[in-house]
Design a protein that fits this description.
By secondary structure, the protein is mostly helical. The protein is built from 12 helices and no strands. α3 crosses α9.
């Protein structure tokens, strides 16, 4: 395993488009659900154990070499809101462009050929991790971290939050992130024998509702 490749893939500066998305925190700020560091931490914790866990499971499964077309269908089933499915595929297209430049491989080319509209981002992330020589656990870590790192960074801009406070809350969630990634990787390891239903399908109805509402806003800072 290349530790450097893991750093590249998890780096917020990796040109995969995540900087333009708030992970739902912009809508949460607008509704006053997130208004300070404590409420942001609660938001990130909830997102980690729902959307983050689900994404980590899909990424870990893709990193095992499981059929990405099947996983993309599973991701669709786990994303009930049209607006968020569109966001996931848009981010998947951008991730695919970056990954093909960094770690060219036939598996990434196949996704581009079979799903020109874009595959779900966690699936692309997992295939990219495998191409980079990373493990399913590494892929799960990247997906889980992304699920909270994006909202924390976006909240700094939305609330003029102290960046040190945002970084501190991510550090406090580190042990929980490890647990989520381990759960996701363990499920992915059972996928070949137990089928697609073994992957996490944790839901967050409020994120789904506000995600659809946010997409209809005429004025917003973030794409989602």
């Amino acid at each position: 395993m290349s530790h450097a490749a893991l750093l590249v893939l998890a780096d917020g500066r990796f040109p995969a488009g995540g900087h333009a998305h708030s992970g739902g925190v912009e809508a949460a700020v607008a509704s006053h659900g997130v208004h300070d560091a404590a409420s942001l931490e609660a938001f990130c914790r909830g997102r980690l154990h729902t959307a983050g866990l689900t994404a980590a499971g899909l990424a870990a499964a893709a990193a095992t070499g499981y059929d990405p077309m099947v996983l993309d269908e599973a991701a669709d089933a786990r994303t009930p809101v049209p607006a968020l499915r569109q966001v996931a595929r848009k981010l998947g297209r951008q991730m695919l462009r970056a990954a093909r430049a960094a770690w060219p491989c036939p598996e990434l080319d196949q996704i581009a050929h079979c799903l020109p509209q874009g595959a779900h981002q966690p699936v692309v992330l997992g295939v990219a991790a495998r191409a980079a020589g990373l493990t399913p656990s590494d892929a799960a870590q990247c997906a889980a971290y992304e699920s909270i790192g994006g909202p924390a960074t976006a909240a700094v801009r939305l609330l003029s939050l102290d960046p040190f406070d945002a970084t501190a809350l991510l550090a406090r969630l580190a042990d929980e992130l490890d647990d989520v990634a381990a759960t996701a990787a363990e499920a992915a390891a059972r996928l070949a024998t137990e089928g697609i239903g073994v992957l996490p399908a944790a839901s967050s109805p409020l994120l789904d509702i506000t995600g659809e509402q946010h997409a209809a806003w005429s004025l917003r800072l973030f794409a989602s």
